[in-house]
Amino acid sequence: MNRARQFGTLIGLVALCFVLWILTPYFLTVSNLLNVAEQTSINAIVAVGMTFVILSGGIDLSVGSIVALTGVILGMALRDAQPLALALTLTLAVGVICGAANGLLVSHGGLPPFIVTLGTMSIARGAALLVTEGRPISGFAPSFRVLATGRIGFVPAPVIITAAVYVFAHLVLTRTTFGRYVYAIGGNEEATRLSGVAVRFHKAMIYVVSGLMSAVAAVILTARLNSAQPIAGMMYELDAIAATVIGGTSLMGGEGTLAGTLVGALIMGVLRNGLNLLGVSSFLQQIVIGGVIVVAVLLDTVLKRKHRA
Amino acid sequence: MSAQPPALEMRGIRKTFPGVVALDGVDLALSAGEVHMLLGENGAGKSTLMKILSGAYRKDAGEILIDGVRVEIAGPRDALARGIRVIYQELTLVPQLSAAENIFLGALPTSGIGGRFGLLDRRSLQAQTTRLLEDLGIAIDPRTRVGRLGLAQRQMIEIAKALATPDDAPAARVLVMDEPTSALTTREVTQLFSLIERLSARGVAIVYITHRMDEVFRIGRRVTVLRDGRVIATRGLDTVTVAELVRMMANRDVTDHFPKVRAARGPELLRLDRLSRSGVLHDISFTLHGGEVLGVAGLLGAGRTELARAIAGADRFDGGQLHVAGTAAKFRTPADAIARGIGLLPEDRKAEGLVAGLTVARNIALPHTRRLARWGVLSSRCETELARPIVGDLRIKATPTQPVRLLSGGNQQKVVLGKWLAGGVRVFIFDEPTRGIDVGAKVEIYNLMNRLTAEGAGIIMISSELPELLGMSDRILVMHRGRLQTVLEREDATEERVVGAALGLASTLSADAPPGGVAG
User: Fold this and answer.
1) ipTM at complex level
2) Which positions ≥6 away from A242 have C-beta within 8 Å?
3) Is-above-0.95 flag for pTM?
């Protein structure tokens, strides 16, 4: 059933591309498609973390703020002429720490994920503004910017990074004990605990994954913009949740796949790109995208209901 | 003379799910006021048939007649409008609301001008509920919050809710009850049965699903036995015996319901020394040896499940000591207990035993994932290979790769059991291991218990079914209000003694119990 569901989302994506191709031939050119893939990469990476969290029955509203915080940490490190490897390690470490804070409050503090991450969303944003005094940090060395501008063959680096992240995360989710526990905790936390699984530890780790993914996204974003901005990543949490849910992951937890999330992120990316090409105003775009999210989930619910009856 | 048409008639009902024929031409007929027992092993199709009646499922073929008139039931509202009411095994009440609000949740009375804006008519709600409850002989204050009621009382409210007639629906004609007594004490069962008799006298046709043979003969008039989606027989209960029914259900003779084999007593596996948890357990001391089945009896709320959870590391205890194989143990989590060879089969398999969305193999492998994995990498093949012999051994009617959600209750229970059979467990704690499963599967579980004890394992079996406790235990601990009331050796255990002790009537431990049975 899961497979049929993913297939449905994929058909939706293909249909969307077809419609856009008819409306504007430029859509289906290699350069534009690569452009879409590159633009989608940041949301797609954040959505990996979000998928882990939602699969486990939680939610992470702090991802956008963590993108901003880790981004400005990276910017400051680079500005202070730290070695690239050190700057990247520091960035990822901050992402892990933010995720661990979320995770510990949820798992050991026993607080609802919605509340915890609502709090850290504000804290991380505030911290990003505080350390930068609200000003962006711009202008980085080409050796760093290559993470966004570089290409292997004709494929942009962000697309390659995203693909690597997806392959690795998919293997973690399907082939490791950790991945199995993500599904099991989301499906039935108490049964999983009584089976001897260290539920609290793994729950905390799930939020660490999400924090780490936000940091990876921040690296690409900073390189792409050639600027680290404390106001970056606004509404990223909603885009990531939308990609995950359009991709068929149940907000109740326990059901969903990363392949679905990737397709979900692509649908969002293609739609934005297509509407831009068509010259649709950004106000109208928001309405269209909101509509697509609701319709996608509605279709999913209706199909599932039919399947079960 | 033309006979009255049956109150309910189902003809040639057929329903298939992907890969399974759940119902294959089932006929069922009930006259008004009849209490009709529906029997069958797990997976025989009882629940599916009732879900078609209640509109939860659509039938593939067949027809349904109410009072001789053919009706289409496309959804739960249709069923309601035809006077069909179903009480499911899982209760569907909102604990935060009052009894009255729960009963009339779908049709809360509103009043006067305010009513248009949804203003509740509380006086009318109160009056309607009082009338209904009095009518049904249920002594519960309509204002009580349901969360404060006991299970039996909730069951009563559930029945009242089913029978409460909203303005736009006809009175109940057909009432379906799915194992309504599985959580009730003997006295509560008697109350429930007198309620059923009153309903029957009023002409309500009742379909009653159960696994308890004594109930079948106590309140049923006729019985229909289902097996593998087909009707095996419909008979008057004065023309059939228990043995015949069991044979029809299982297609095999289950001559001995309790095939107890006593195993040699092995070394001490578990010793509790004045184990306490404030407000719940008080000074519980006993010893479990290898090869032994230790039954635990007691009323609901006596602390049996709490005891099981404390031993299995699911809840902490705050006093006393626990010794595993002679050495002191302190469990912080279930994982600690499992590491010391203690496995818990929880009371509520859906809420605590299974991850419904995962496959059979993955559920069985869940406690063993760390052992199966190398560097955290887990292969599906490993899990399937671990599970396959267990699936075969327990005769679970499923493949390892099916989601457990799709399995029947008995098969789900076997999956939960299977989790602890993949090695390492020496102390099995079974909390109501046979609740809600059929006779054939029960015997399979008893045989499994024999095998485990023969292999030197020890079993703590909590049960609310006296015959099962008396039939399978080597010793019986009887709990009353969080204390160990008495310990009875198999030879000395009688229904009267166990019940007496459970009610707190019998003399306490020191006076009555054979001293050899108690440690500490």
Assistant:
1) 0.77
2) A264, A268, A289, A293
3) no
